[in-house]
Write a structure and sequence with these properties.
Length: 153
């Protein structure tokens, strides 16, 4: 019985080392992905890229999660909220834009102020930046996980 208890203790210690090392590998890779997402993000003002965040790594049961995300939102004229990152990543179809909480929309066109109560937006082309960053770091993530497991034994 004493040997079984020692074996169980060793497995517990090993499990803790594995989880610790895998969390570290995942956290490092998530920061790399976040950096690449920011680098690939549209840069008309640079403010959108600043909204891209990397969450703390969390462990729940056998799942280890780290999120790379933006909480930047766009609100439609009907009051529906959309995640800006998703809209930029996937593009949008043509849609109508109407003012919310104001009488008219205001924008510049050819250097001139334009006011309108309704605009037919032609839609926007996708600007993928999350998926390419994830794809570019797949190999690095796998390599770090393998190294983390090796270090654990």
């Amino acid at each position: 019985m004493k040997d079984i208890n020692r074996l169980i203790e060793r497995f517990d210690t090993l499990e803790k080392r594995v989880v610790k090392n895998v969390i570290e590998a995942q956290r490092e890779t998530a920061w790399d992905i976040g950096f690449d997402v920011r680098k690939l993000a549209p840069k008309s003002t640079g403010r959108y890229a600043d909204t891209i965040k990397v969450s703390n790594t969390e462990v729940e049961g056998t799942t280890i999660t780290t999120k790379i995300y933006t909480d930047a939102k766009v609100i439609s004229s009907k009051g529906k909220e959309y995640n800006l990152g998703y809209l930029l990543e996937t593009g949008t179809s043509p849609h109508i834009i109407e003012p919310v909480n104001v009488k008219a929309l205001h924008f510049l066109m050819n250097g001139k102020d334009v006011f309108a109560t309704r605009v037919q937006h032609p839609g926007s082309v996708a600007i993928p930046h999350f998926i390419p960053a994830l794809e570019a770091n797949k190999y690095r993530y796998k390599k770090r996980i393998r190294e983390a497991l090796r270090r654990s034994f």
